[in-house]
């Protein structure tokens, strides 16, 4: 199916190795046993009908009644950690028989044989990070010239796509503030993918970005600060609502794709807000032969900082390799978007392997410890693989995740991203290894979760009208 534009005609989405998606105009069903079309993990629409359960948009076909599925539109923007959960949900929903459109930038590659439709959004966050790094000062200085035009083009593109496709459900990243308004303009259900607990108030923990010293009694009230900050960027949504004649600009449902092992769902959350579990699938891609041979003999330290970038990348890489050597470990340097820069001697050292990126699900089970930035996806992958890790947070939710792991005995205190003393780094790695028992228990618990199945079940319930929505 692969990359497409919103204006292309609808067509059968699934190749034969996923499922046979029969349509009245294509396959006469009279005298033929209808195929199974899965609406979930365990039950087909035909089976659901036999059980007296509701199904979606029944199409009367001679000899059978079957579901055409829900039309789902997903849109995201950001780094790999912002994109991969949406890709995983797109794959899950499409493989379950729903018609799925996934809009994203070139920050993740397009998949020519995807079982969902891909739509391109303008711009690239990687290009922006490459040009200006993660400096707040630089970001503010270039906002009018760089970010504002980019976001305006994203808002315009997603609005056009939603209004052309007319989906039943729109699932969107918080950065795309106009998505809910566009969804409501076509009668779609608007679902916010709250990548970390940020907008839904709770007394159990503070939102991302709050200082460590804040007393827990302030937890719930502190979400008001987040709401005020979000409201400051709400102008485009209000403007769009006025132009489209839409009253509501807020989501109907909020899903948080993080592990309940790491963040149990707060008891004081409303029914329309749910922690589903992580949205992830085993990563596409394999290890090359050289990397596989490198990992066969350990112990190995994984060092990678994803989409982070600053002016300390070279000295950071040197410090990490030196720390690993103090512990008798080899180092896998994963340079990402520029958080690490390999020194010339690293390229020829037998105890160092340099890669731009690696599939976490394949590599992490083979390493003995890790140092990383603490992004939500990377942190979950570390715990899921029971890999002891040290977090050097840069921005956003990363310090929050570092504190969360430390509080639950799943990791040591975070190190500053500017730490260059190999002895300090080595001591932190040793401390992380002391969390191995707790990590193994957490990994067992996470293995029982299925965030994708739970999210898809909620979307299906919402389309049936049996899942609670946020008050209007």
Q: Report the end-to-end length measured between terminal Cα atoms.
A: 37 Å
* Secondary structure category: alpha/beta
Q: Say what the CATH topology of the largest domain is.
A: Rossmann fold
Q: What radius of gyration results from the CA coordinates?
A: 23 Å
Q: How many distinct folded domains?
A: 2
Number of helices, counting only DSSP H or I runs of 4 residues or more: 16
CATH class of the largest domain: Alpha Beta
Describe the protein's topology.
Elements: H1 45-50, E1 58-61, E2 64-67, E3 71-75, H2 80-95, E4 99-104, E5 117-120, H3 125-132, H4 136-141, H5 143-165, E6 169-172, H6 179-185, E7 189-193, H7 219-231, H8 235-244, E8 253-256, E9 273-275, H9 289-296, E10 300-304, H10 313-326, E11 330-334, E12 352-355, H11 360-363, E13 369-372, H12 376-384, E14 389-391, H13 398-407, H14 422-433, H15 436-447, H16 451-464
Parallel strand pairs: 3-4, 3-6, 4-5, 6-7, 7-8, 8-9, 10-11, 10-13, 11-12, 13-14
Antiparallel strand pairs: 1-2
What does this structure look like?
This protein has a seven-stranded parallel beta sheet with strand order 5-4-3-6-7-8-9, sandwiched between helices. It has a five-stranded parallel beta sheet with strand order 12-11-10-13-14, sandwiched between helices. It has a two-stranded antiparallel ribbon with strand order 1-2. By secondary structure, the protein is α/β, with parallel strands linked by helices. The chain is 36% helix and 13% strand. Helix 6 (179-185) runs parallel beside helix 8 (235-244). It has two domains: 71-278 and 449-464, Glycogen Phosphorylase B (Rossmann fold), CATH 3.40.50; 289-447, 3-Layer(aba) Sandwich (Rossmann fold), CATH 3.40.50.2000. Mean pLDDT is 82; it is low at 3-67. The chain has 16 helices and 14 strands.
């Amino acid at each position: 199916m692969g990359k497409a534009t919103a204006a292309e005609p609808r067509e059968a989405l699934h190749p034969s190795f996923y499922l046979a998606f029969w349509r009245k105009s294509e396959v006469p069903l009279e005298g033929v046993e209808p195929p199974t079309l899965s609406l979930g993990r365990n039950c087909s629409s035909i089976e659901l009908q036999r059980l007296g359960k509701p199904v979606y948009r029944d199409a009367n076909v001679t000899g059978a009644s079957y579901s055409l599925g829900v039309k789902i539109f997903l849109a995201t923007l950001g780094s790999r950690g912002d994109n991969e959960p949406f890709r995983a949900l797109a794959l899950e929903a499409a493989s379950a028989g729903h018609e799925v459109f996934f809009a994203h930038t070139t920050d993740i590659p397009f998949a020519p044989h995807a079982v969902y439709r891909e739509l391109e959004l303008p711009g690239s966050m990687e290009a922006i990070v490459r040009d200006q790094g993660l400096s707040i000062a630089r970001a503010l200085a270039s906002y009018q010239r760089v970010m504002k035009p980019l976001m305006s083009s994203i808002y315009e593109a997603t609005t056009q796509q939603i209004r052309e496709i007319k989906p039943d459900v729109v699932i969107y990243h918080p950065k795309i503030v106009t998505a809910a308004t566009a969804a409501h303009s076509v009668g779609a259900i608007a679902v916010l993918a709250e990548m970390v607990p940020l907008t839904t108030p709770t007394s159990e923990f503070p939102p991302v970005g709050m200082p460590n010293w804040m007393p827990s009694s302030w937890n719930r009230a502190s979400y008001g600060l987040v709401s005020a900050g979000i409201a400051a960027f709400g102008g485009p949504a209000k403007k769009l609502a006025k132009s489209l004649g839409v009253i509501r600009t807020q989501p109907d449902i909020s899903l948080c794709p993080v592990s309940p092992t790491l963040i149990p769902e707060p008891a004081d959350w409303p029914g329309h807000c749910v922690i589903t579990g992580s949205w992830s699938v085993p990563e596409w891609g394999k290890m090359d032969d050289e990397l596989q041979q490198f990992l066969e003999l350990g112990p190995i330290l994984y060092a990678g900082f994803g989409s982070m970038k600053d002016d300390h990348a070279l000295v950071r890489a040197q410090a990490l390799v030196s720390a690993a050597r103090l512990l008798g470990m080899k180092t896998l340097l994963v340079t990402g978007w520029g958080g690490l820069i390999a020194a010339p001697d690293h390229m020829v050292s037998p105890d160092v392997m340099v890669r731009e990126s690696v599939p976490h699900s394949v590599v992490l089970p083979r390493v003995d410890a890790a140092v990383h930035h603490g992004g939500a996806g990377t942190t979950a992958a570390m715990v899921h693989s029971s890999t002891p890790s040290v977090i050097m947070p840069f921005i956003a939710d990363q310090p929050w995740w570092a504190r969360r792991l430390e509080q639950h005995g799943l990791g040591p205190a975070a190190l500053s991203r500017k730490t260059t003393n190999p002895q300090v780094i080595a001591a932190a790695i040793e401390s992380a290894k002391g969390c191995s028992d707790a990590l193994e228990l957490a990994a067992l618990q996470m293995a029982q979760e299925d965030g994708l199945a739970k999210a898809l079940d909620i979307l299906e319930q919402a389309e049936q009208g049996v899942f609670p929505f946020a008050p209007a």
